Amino acid sequence: MVKIGKLELGEFPLLLAPMEDVSDPPFRAVCKQNGADLMYTEFISSEGLIRDAAKSIQKLDIFDYEKPIGIQIFGNEIESMREAAAIAEEAGPDILDINYGCPVHKVACKGAGAGILLDIDKMVSMTAEIVRRVNIPVTVKTRLGWDQNTIRIVEVAERLQDIGIQAISIHARTRQQMYKGEADWSYLNLVKDNPRLHIPVFGNGDIDSPEKALEYKNKYNVDGMMIGRASIGYPWIFNEIKHFIATGEKLPSPDLDERIAVAKKHLDFSVEWKGEKQGILEMRRHYTSYFRGMPNFKTFRTEMVTADTYEQVREILNQVSEVYADYEF
């Protein structure tokens, strides 16, 4: 049984990665319904939280049906991160996660996210302050290092464990790689082989099929996996991986009716959470992903991303069902 603090997550938990502009409550809802064991919010700016910025505050929205859930924060100032951690804890998450992995320039080059991998001592000091400040388990998501010459992930994991974090998720790329090239999970083996390490280690990067999930589980000895980009438009991946690990058999791909049903659920959650206008706008980034690979779909895609009422979007989805009734994925 994998545990984070007293939180029990099963034998080999699958986590939904925090993804900016993606892993909001509506998206998390459909991933939860399709097998995600633990989810995280989009990362939230510590400075935004302590300044009461509306966008940051809204990202604290979590719901009982999502639990267990973690709130993730990022920043480069220790005192701001301490304050933000306390604010996030008041929202009632099960876990507080610290983002030490975001590679984008506007975050990393200001010393936050993966930028702190250039200053491991500060990373440890900041984490220690946050652990002392809150009463819920603290976890960390990070990368292997800033670049190939600064990979100290075995040391980082051990030092963070020693000051009190209760799990670590590692994206098996450096910051310099961004999302390019192949993730190198061999470093996760080194982390797990450290006899002093006893906290759960979750692997992240390139898990896009049940076959690869089982292969990497057996090869790299991680305690669970964090799924990110592969879940966008395909929340079924969590249950598919679980079933394949348990039985060695692949579940059939969701058919068109199921894809439309989940897209409608996602839309409903989005409109309920944000209101009709904003809910429809924020759903637009997801439609293409739900129907990826379907031929001659451009007209429907255009209609979906220009429709401005809930009824219009639902009607377009109904039309897709009729036009592609015989299509098989």
Question: How would you sum up this structure, described in words?
Answer:
This protein is α/β, with parallel strands linked by helices and 329 residues long. It folds into 2 domains: 245 residues, TIM Barrel, CATH 3.20.20; 68 residues, Non-ribosomal Peptide Synthetase Peptidyl Carrier Protein, Chain A, CATH 1.10.1200. It is 45% helix and 13% strand. It is built from 14 helices and 11 strands. Strands 3-4-6-7-8-9-10-11 form an 8-stranded parallel barrel, surrounded by 5 helices. Strands 1-2 form a two-stranded antiparallel ribbon. Strand 6, helix 4 and strand 7 form a beta-alpha-beta unit. It starts with a strand and ends in a 6-residue tail after the last helix.
List the helices and strands in order.
EEEHEEHHEHEHHEHEHEHEHHHHH
CATH superfamily of the largest domain: Aldolase class I
Q: Total number of helical segments?
A: 14
What is the residue-averaged pLDDT? Answer: 95
Determine the N-to-C terminus distance.
35 Å
Beta-strand residue percentage: 5-15%
Unreliable stretches (pLDDT < 50, length at least 5) are: none
**What is the total tally of β strands?**
11
Tell me the name of the CATH class of the largest domain. Alpha Beta
Please identify, by name, the CATH architecture of the largest domain: Alpha-Beta Barrel
Structural class: alpha/beta
**Residues in helices, as a percent range:** 40-55%
Give the biggest beta sheet: 8 strands, parallel, barrel
